[in-house]
Pyridinium-3,5-bisthiocarboxylic acid mononucleotide nickel insertion protein (Candidatus Acutalibacter pullicola), 437 residues
Amino acid sequence: MKTLYLECNMGAAGDMLAAALLELHPDPQGFVERMNRLGLPGVEFAAQPAVKCGITGTHVSVTIHGEEEESQDVHLHAHSHEHVHETVQEEALHGHSHHHDHEHDHEHDHAHAHEHDHGHTHGHHHHAGLGDIRHILSHLEIPQEVRADAEEVYQLIAQAESRAHGRPVEEIHFHEVGTLDAVADVVAVCWLLHDLAPEQIVASPVHVGCGQVRCAHGILPVPAPATATILQGVPTYGGAVEGELCTPTGAALLKHFVQRFGPAPVMRVEKTGYGMGKKDFAAANCVRAMLGQSGSASGRETVLELCCNLDDMTGEALGFAQEQLLEAGALDVFTQPIGMKKGRPGVLLTVLCREEDRERFVGLLFAHTTTLGVREHLCARYTLERSQETAETPWGPVGRKVSTGWGVTRNKPEYEDLARIAREQGLSLEQVRSQLS
């Protein structure tokens, strides 16, 4: 299976993710040229070599009318605009300092992207809302899938800021310069992933940094409230690095695209990319992206088996619990009849999941069953490589599940397609199956 693994040992930001993925692209220069043909007003997308701790990677820069924002990510703070204010985000986005000091003569609450110290003053600022972002995206010549992904990433950011600041989503606005800068990063990441087309995306737990960040409202903890909201349910950790390592944009991109978080899967790495931040730390300030084929030749992996004994649930309640577990991404859920104390018949409910998803599924078991305890076992699992195919037949396309490995190849038509044909043709399932085999 084509797998992308993102190593976020120094957090994640939009520009760092874009740079790491760009190094995996078969035609990085061509991609940069594509980005610059999008027609974002005054925007130039560029990639330069960068070195951190002796490792050579790529740094992506986005300039607006020839000027580069110090931060490549939108960091939003809701506030009212009937005053002159100064906001400094210390050590934000991998140690960059930000500064703005300007007047606003309009009244409305909105989220404001950090301006950065370029040694000049911006005279006029337009504040774009989520609708404006969608309008910008709708006019870009990008694949529809890329546009949809970018819109969903922005929706995550706006919802998080709305929750953090107690404002409706429609009152969350983005600063014009920061907007164009971030749009370029978000579109680049979405488009690169569209081109690379991994079948699964896995990421390490995310290093968010530690300490505090200072804004117009005072001193805030790291991660900032919006980032913390976006990262709910994602494994994160702090550490000795002072500053905000994971930005809202980086968090939203990870939350949208990554299917699971944990250690690197067993995979044959074919290409590695390093996306560099600007700040220098004792550790290499980068996101590392590895693209390859997951699964060893033996098809062996480790999974967690969670199980509990039940003797006081109705069949409907047990069925609902199984549905919730499967919808949450369990690898498998099944039941077995068992005998319990005092001769009572019972059910053994078993859930297979990834080790890093332990707490989530234990919580779901307690939430949706009447159990008072859950047992766990680590198991080795041997699997065949699975894929989906579509075959053309006299009755239209039929999906097939194909499994290979261990000297075995199997294929099985999708039940829903067989059932549809059987109903339309007045045949039995077995008749349809035999005519398609």
